[in-house]
Amino acid sequence: MDPSSRAQARSLGYALLAELLERGVTDATRDAATASDAMAAAIEARDADGLAADHERAFGWAASPLAGFYLDPERLVGGPRTDALLALFDAAGYAPDLRSRDAEHLSVTLRALAFLSGAEADAREDGHEGAVERVEVLARRLLDEHVLRWLPIFALAVRRTALPFPVALVDELEALIGSHREALPGATPAFAKSDATRMLDVDETGLR
């Protein structure tokens, strides 16, 4: 696959995973989701009500897809972290509809990455290397400064639920983000361990 086609495929993948994370399996996304063997098996094993219940249990209760749940000592959303995300979205020319979704919801950032990957595909198709470089810098910052700081813990918490579709979804998400980051220039940063460890001592969070 040529680089432009790969970026376009990545864009579609991010958009699909964002929709599945936010809304679960719907009539509009079922066919695309079943292109993944693992997600297809999980979808076929449950009826629509069961899939909806599993989605709510995983992402509404066990593993909230909000950055603050993992990065803030008090599990609060908002503040400088949200401001930094919105500044990156603005720099990318991406204007999310945040009337019903907080900027820290993972689906919002996935849609931003879909937008940037689409822009990368267009720039590569047109031979605009400067535009490709700018898009890659923004994508790397979204991943390194935001998503990769908490995605592994989020994915682990989802896997602990043992719910087939949510687990298959985070497996696909980690694979896509991993392949995207490997394709970007620059080494991934090392992150310092947080001092806020008391969250791990609360059984209800399931994060340990």
The fraction of residues assigned to DSSP E strands is under 5%
Shape, per Cα inertia axes: globular
Q: What letter string, H or E per element, gives the SSE order?
A: HHHHHHHHH
Main beta sheet: strand number and arrangement? none
Q: Name the average pLDDT.
A: 91
SS element count, helices: 9
Give the termini distance in whole angstroms: 40 Å
Q: How many strand units?
A: 0
Q: What report would you give on this structure?
A:
- The structure is a single chain.
- The protein is mainly alpha-helical.
- It contains nine helices and no strands.
- It is globular, with a radius of gyration of 17 Å.
- It starts with a helix and ends in a 25-residue tail after the last helix.
Salient structural properties:
208 residues, mainly alpha, 9 helices, 67% helix
Summary of the model, kept short:
This protein is an all-alpha fold and 208 residues long. 67% of the residues lie in helices and 0% in strands. It has helices at residues 3-23, 30-33, 37-44, 48-62, 68-71, 80-92, 106-126, 129-161, 164-183.
Detail the topology: elements first, then pairings.
Layout: H1 3-23, H2 30-33, H3 37-44, H4 48-62, H5 68-71, H6 80-92, H7 106-126, H8 129-161, H9 164-183
Helix pairs in contact: 1-7, 1-9, 3-9, 6-8, 7-8, 8-9
